[in-house]
Amino acid sequence: MRHGQSTTNAEGRFTGWTDVPLTPRGEDETVRAARSIAREGLLPDVVHTSLLRRSVHSADLALGTLDRLWIPVRRSWRLNERQYGALTGRLKHEVRQEAGPGRYRHWRRSLHGRPAPLPADALARLRADPRYAALRPDAVPAVESLADMITRVVPYWTDVLVPQLRAGATVLVVAHGNSLRALAAVLDRLTGDEAERLDIPTGAPLRHDFDGDLRPLVRHGTYLDPGSAARADLVAAEGH
Ligand SMILES: O=C(O)[C@@H](CO)OP(=O)(O)O
């Protein structure tokens, strides 16, 4: 599940690694999402979040609603949102207007598109953030493409999520639009075109069941709430 709506989502800004809170609507989305998880009988045995508060808080709200605040939690920078570099904090509609629809789409959704990097002072501040202290400084990126994100997410899938799934656990990942696109690219074995067309709405649980070889039974998974596909189209249209 992607976190609930954040303050910068509501403003229509690129967010990336900026640590912004949820809006009241985002909190509400997350509680509703947890209710659909409960209706589906999918009580998680373990939860994973990024190091950003919109993911952490969404997971807490969901687990609180499910009365599962006690389950093991693992947080990782590998699940953080994509580093959007110089686009961080910018209004999407302004960027689209300045750069044109083709470049905007290339930067936002293509496999290899990378905008300009984060300015040096902003990168230095991020690298000094105590939450990234255990990382090699160059692991905190100045900008990332979706392909870079896939490289970042693969070890988490292989070393952390796969062993839990193999052990039969129901695993809840509460992360971000682009870290979840990267995870979907890995587990659904998406082509570049498919990854480019994938948009993930906030607070919409997406269910994946796997066979013994960890291949998804339903490619692309199934949204618990049937209205989620229409909400994904709204994400695609952001900035238009
Ligand atoms: O701003 C961001 O970090 C992401 C998610 O909110 O935006 P986009 O959907 O445009 O990749």
Automatic annotation (TrEMBL):
Which keywords are on file for this protein? Gluconeogenesis, Glycolysis, Isomerase
Site residues by UniProt (Transition state stabilizer): 176
* Enzyme class, UniProt record, top EC level: isomerase
| EC code | 5.4.2.11
What pathway does this protein act in?
Carbohydrate degradation; glycolysis; pyruvate from D-glyceraldehyde 3-phosphate: step 3/5
Question: What does the UniProt record say this protein does?
Answer: Catalyzes the interconversion of 2-phosphoglycerate and 3-phosphoglycerate.
Residues given in the record as substrate binding sites: 2-9, 15-16, 54, 81-84, 92, 108-109, 177-178
Disordered as annotated region, ranges: 1-22
The superkingdom listed in its UniProt entry is: Bacteria
Specify whether Cell wall biogenesis/degradation is a keyword of the entry.
no
PANTHER family (UniProt xref): PHOSPHOGLYCERATE MUTASE
Question: Catalysed reaction per UniProt?
Answer: (2R)-2-phosphoglycerate = (2R)-3-phosphoglycerate
Q: Can you say what this protein is called?
A: 2,3-bisphosphoglycerate-dependent phosphoglycerate mutase
The entry's active site is 3, 81
